[in-house]
Amino acid sequence: MHRYALGEASLELCCGDITEADTVAIANAANAMLMGGGGVDGAIHRAAGPELAKALIELKRDLPGGVLETGGAVITPGFLLPAKWVIHCVGPIFEREGDSAAKLLARCYAKALELCRRRELESIAFPSISTGVYGYPVNLAAPVALEAVRRGLGDGAFPRRIRFVLFDDATLEAYRTAADALFR
Ligand code: ADP
After folding, report:
1. SS3 of 17, please?
2. Omega prior to 159 cis, within 30 of 0
3. Running DSSP on this structure, what letter comes out for residue 159?
4. Residues 84, 64: contact at Cβ < 8 Å?
5. Cα–Cα distance between 81 and 142 in angstroms, integer?
6. Which of 26, 54, 110, 159 gives 116 a disulfide partner, CB atoms 3.0 to 4.6 angstroms apart?
7. Which residues does 50 contact at the CB level (< 8 Å), separation at least 6?
């Protein structure tokens, strides 16, 4: 585990499976349809159980066209997960968004942190949004994600603990390099 101080909050980077994270909330790299899919989204749905898909179907009724915009985030319970809440973020598809990709990726993290602040959630774990199937190069995504977390924390009291749970060593290394450059 690698730790950094961000004002009053702490940032942790580790390798692992986010479905096992014991933070109050975890973020999901969802898709616009919020219907579950592959990668981390599929793992979260499997671990949370079928109630998660049902909750998302309900929630989609309130979204225009039943679609969550890129850069958006919504919250559901975690059901069978150790985490009490799941914040579903739609990251940018790198090739499709071009120059807007960084702004949209940063917005996912900002929106997730805003939900934590509003609901007074003490801790959240993030996966590396968009760097799997959505094709965002991890060495470009890591500094965007970390800078967005720093900005999104502001001086609020929630969340106090932000953890990135990264699925493989190469991804952890990219985040560690970016965090050392930004925060050390
Ligand atoms: P996206 O569609 O946003 O690119 P993916 O799920 O394809 O989302 O990949 C995002 C990142 O999540 C990748 O680094 C992938 O290796 C990672 N990942 C996949 N499964 C898990 C898991 N169970 N826990 C944490 N990270 C995961």
Report:
1. coil
2. yes
3. -
4. no
5. 26
6. 159
7. none
Atom of ligand 1 at shortest range from CA of 91: 3
Annotated active-site residue 41? The verdict is yes
Judge contact between 166 and 177, C-beta under 8 A: no
pLDDT per position as a tens digit, 114-139: 999 999 999 999 999 999 999 999 99
| CA 17 to centroid of ligand 1, rounded, Å | 9
Residue 103 CB neighbour total at 10 angstroms: 13
Percent over 90 (pLDDT), the chain: 96
- Read off the tokens for 10: 């702490």
Q: Distance, CA 108 to ligand 1 centroid (Å)?
A: 15
Are the CB atoms for 126 and 145 separated by under 8 Å? yes
Ligand 1 mean position, distance from CA 69 (Å): 19
The answer as to CATH 3.40.220.10 being correct for domain 15-183 is yes
Report d(CA 138, CA 142) in Å as an integer.
6
Residue 156 has pLDDT above 90, yes or no: no
The domain segmentation of the chain, as residue ranges, is 15-183
Pick the catalytic residue from 22, 41, 168, 169.
Answer: 41
Categorize the per-residue pLDDT at 154 as very low, low, confident or very high, splitting at 50, 70 and 90.
confident
